[in-house]
Design brief:
12 strands, alpha/beta, five-stranded parallel sheet
Length: about 550
């Protein structure tokens, strides 16, 4: 394997494999491989289902086979529990009734949606000319094991629009109808017919060309889902997403959808743990804020008195155009909004009173916790330590504000916890003997995903979102090359994958064979062309320079 890479001139991936072997890690060929349901469905099983339907004109025959758990078209119904087989038969029966009547109602829509795995809260049907759609509210979906991409998961927030299509329009008209009435909602299509292999490929081509995003359920896919054991939602999305356009990767700093957050398990546990670290540091736009926001999202549960508050001190102006003591004003406002401070308390109250009310709230709610995440905290810590400006040495003064926060941590047995995050100045602060939190947990460096499990997560960040959209790598070595070229940083992997998708979708007709795509096979040529683009090179270089410019000593080294 390594020799082959060296012979092909791929020194980067070969070096990484050598390092993995030294660390006792398995190479990508040994990684767990998810079941490729899309390749199972399309086109082989889909063609067999179509052939079966063309032979058997009576739909009740197939419905009975499904209800009796009898296999068909290479679909093994014996593995499906009886209750699920009954629900599948009911869903297919309703589908045929809707197909015949050219009309849908809320009860029928709910049966189909329950079959797919949605928990329907409300469904409002609208008819306008030949178009008919359902505005749907469901319980939110944010687990990537159920829905692999944010658009139909966490970003949809349980709001969908379902377009009902009976008249089998050309693919161009179908896309136009969905686009004209989407209004920004995550769109699904109930296509009451069967879409052939050629039509599906054409739908994919047109969707990518027009950047249209929706997923389609037709009769063939519905029948395929009848043979699924357990939740059908993940299989539905993995079979439908390859025929649409979507860009799942995020290239800006800040909040990241939970479906796209991979790795950092140790850091997340340490930040959430009352006894864990109180300091996070690392370079610019390399993952600190994304990590903190993800912890905030996981921990915060107001109904169960679990409070997590993330504050960007730089954006709030603390230590810049506002004095650092305004932190207490901001905290008072946040605590009033949540109910920790009574509404009668003014936001300009004293720090002692804020701490007193916070202590009392935690005492009254014995299972309660408060996690305060202070991002961009470098200037705050510098001034709190007695610094007078950017060039002043850290460590002067008594850290009066940090001491108050430490006192609250001590008094509440760390059910209140504060975490400071920032650049390398935060790390230097923890090394000061007089800092009150200096010994409160090891400072965490947000670096590359390099150890065994984290390295696998870096690869999954590449493979899984792309696989959901129908992309496959010609070789697992290409995945390793991509993450190595991104230096194993999740933010750079997101950047690289975003440019890769933009590159292949912009020249889609030339990049892939129309008669056999999807699935879309990504080759070394695709990666080379994306990586060599001026835009990607500039974006990666900028992020590294932003980190190097944090300390003039790095620039001196660069001049040698």
């Amino acid at each position: 394997c390594i020799s082959a890479l060296l012979n092909a001139g791929d020194v980067i991936t070969a070096n990484d494999y050598v390092e993995m072997i030294r660390n006792g890690e398995s190479l990508p060929n040994d990684l767990d491989v998810d079941r490729d349901v899309f390749r199972d469905f399309f086109p082989r099983t889909m063609q067999k289902i179509e052939h079966l339907l063309e032979e058997g004109k009576n739909p009740q025959t197939l419905i009975s086979r499904i209800r009796d758990r009898k296999s068909f078209a290479d679909i093994d119904m014996s593995r499906v529990p009886g209750g699920q087989a009954q629900a599948a038969a009911d869903a297919l029966e309703i589908w045929h009734a809707l197909k015949r009547d050219h009309k849908i109602n809320e009860k029928s829509a709910k049966v189909l949606l329950d079959f797919l795995g949605f928990n329907t809260l409300s469904a409002r049907i609208t008819r306008s000319g030949r178009r008919e759609w359902i505005d749907l509210k469901t319980d939110p979906v944010s687990d990537r094991d159920r829905c692999p991409v944010p658009h139909f998961g966490s970003q949809a927030r349980g709001t969908y629009r379902i377009h009902c299509i009976w008249d089998r329009p050309p693919e161009e008209d179908l896309i136009s109808d969905v686009g004209n009435s989407a209004h920004g909602a995550a769109s699904l299509v109930f296509y009451f017919g069967r879409m052939s292999e050629a039509k599906r490929r054409e739908l994919a081509r047109l969707s990518i060309r027009g950047k249209n995003t929706f997923v389609l359920l037709d009769e063939t896919l519905l029948i395929y889902l009848c043979g699924e054991r357990g939740s059908r939602m993940p299989v539905f999305f993995r079979c439908a997403l390859p025929f649409t356009f979507y860009e799942p990767y995020t290239t800006t700093a800040g909040l990241l959808a939970p479906e796209m957050f991979y790795g950092r398990d140790y850091e997340r546990r340490s930040i959430s743990d009352p006894r864990g670290s109180c300091f996070i540091y690392g370079g610019r736009q390399l993952g600190k804020t994304v990590l903190l926001r993800d912890v905030e999202r996981q921990v915060h549960d107001l109904g169960n008195n679990r409070i997590a508050i993330w504050l960007d001190l730089k954006t709030k102006g603390i230590g810049y155009d506002r004095p650092v003591d305004d932190l207490w004003v901001i905290l008072a406002g946040e605590f009033k909004r949540i109910g920790i401070l009574p509404a009668s308390v003014q936001v300009h109250t004293s720090p002692d009173r804020i701490i007193e009310h916070t202590r009392a709230w935690l005492a009254a709610n014995t299972d309660a916790r408060i996690l305060l995440l202070l991002d961009e905290a470098d200037r705050f810590l510098e001034i709190d330590g007695g610094g007078r400006g950017d060039s002043a040495p850290v460590g002067l003064g008594e850290f009066a504000r940090a001491s108050r926060l430490k006192g609250l941590m001590d008094d509440t047995d760390r059910r209140f916890k504060v975490v400071f995050a920032g650049l390398h100045n935060v790390q230097r602060t923890t090394q000061l003997e007089n800092h009150p939190l200096a010994h409160f947990g090891e400072a965490l460096c947000i670096g590359p995903l390099l150890n065994g499990l984290e390295r696998r997560e870096a690869c999954r960040l590449v493979e899984r979102p792309l696989a959901a959209l129908g992309y496959r790598f010609e070789s697992p070595d290409l995945v390793m090359r991509l993450v190595a070229q991104a230096n194993y940083y999740p933010s750079l992997i997101q950047l690289y994958c975003s440019h890769l998708l933009q590159h292949v979708t912009a020249r889609h007709a030339a990049a892939f064979q129309a008669s056999s795509s999807p699935p879309y096979v990504l080759t070394s040529k695709h990666l080379d062309e994306a990586y060599d683009s001026r835009e990607l090179q500039t974006a990666i270089r900028d992020r590294l320079l932003w980190t190097l410019q944090l300390d003039q000593r790095y620039e001196v080294l660069g001049c040698q």
